[in-house]
Amino acid sequence: MPTRFAGIDYGTARIGLAVSDPVGTLASPLCAISGKGTPTQQIESIAAAVAEYEIDEWVVGLPLNMDGSEGPQARLTRQFAQHLAAQTNQIVHCWDERLSSKQADVYMAGSGLTRKKKKNRRDALAAQVILQSFLDAR
Hints:
By secondary structure, the chain is an alpha/beta fold. The protein has a single domain, classed as YqgF/RNase H-like domain (Nucleotidyltransferase, domain 5, 2-Layer Sandwich), CATH 3.30.420. It has four helices and five strands, in the order βββαβαβαα.
């Protein structure tokens, strides 16, 4: 049975979103939304942004330190992932997101976008990198 995934680059300022194709093999950046509000409000905003895609499972980027340990942001992200699983009643995967933002910057190099546009696009591209990495590992 095909599975459609949504990728999330979770942050307290912005949340980047990406979606897979209907069979779960190719990730595409979607958008970035505000990370402000409670986890419930954040999840409602995420659900509204991906509503038309009929998501089956979620992939949340886990910001591990370079040595693999978890810092404060990783703990916040795990808490968010738990809220997401409880609120959606769907499977949520936490996936190592180390260097995803750097890869997004590489994608945008020479794009001609303004700094502000790059900032918003970066989060969606980071979510795409996270999701594609997860899909490739499956």
